[in-house]
Design brief:
With 201 residues, the protein is an alpha/beta fold. The chain has 7 helices and 10 strands. The chain has helices spanning 10-24, 41-53, 56-59, 71-75, 95-101, 115-118, 152-165; strands at residues 30-35, 62-68, 84-86, 102-104, 110-113, 121-125, 138-142, 166-173, 188-190, 197-200.
Amino acid sequence: MAFTFFFRDEQILSLAVQKLVPLTMGRSNVQILNAGCAMGMETYTFAILLAESMGKFALRNVKIHAIDIDNENVDFGKTVTDGIYNKEHLQRIPPELFDKYFSAFEKTDHFIIRDDLRNLVTFQKYDLLTLKPLRNDYSLIICKNVLLHFHYAQRIEVLSMYHSMLLDNGLLVMENTQSMPEELTHKFKKLVNYAQLHEKI
Ligand SMILES: C[S@@+](CC[C@H](N)C(=O)[O-])C[C@H]1O[C@@H](n2cnc3c(N)ncnc32)[C@H](O)[C@@H]1O
């Protein structure tokens, strides 16, 4: 099982929301890719942060495509795809957001995320190293704690693929310990000096 948790790297995800929202104004189709989504905690964290920042109406225009190579992660007891998590996985969610977005799932120790957020997300098994672009109209790609598993040459290939999958001025988020390989600095502009948030050039 992959290492991940709700509200991991919240600061960079909140920054991505802040930069993304103005780009989506007036758009009826906003596509986001969460690459290496593991058991969906990152995906739903981002959905919650987005919902906090966007009105319900605008949120309906957003789709989050969550992918991972590992079926065990994507299925995770066949509950992740339904937005259902055991109570112990939800401890890090700020209580007011937990109350707002989760409700008890039947008579178990599981909770289910609100329907409008579940409906934003689709999960799919996919290997990034096949280097087959999924779409070419993403406004944002979140890829955290994944590239570190790849060799340097593979990172360049995957990041080049991300470049081809993003719309002009689309955004790419990586974890803080990752950096853009020098070979690609002409393709991405780093937007802040304290986080790995990049814009497609
Ligand atoms: C450490 S987890 C990171 C999860 C989440 N992004 C986060 O930051 O909390 C890394 C994830 O990358 C996935 N992964 C590794 N290689 C991959 C590949 N070639 N294609 C797609 N996903 C991959 C793993 O299965 C795992 O779920």
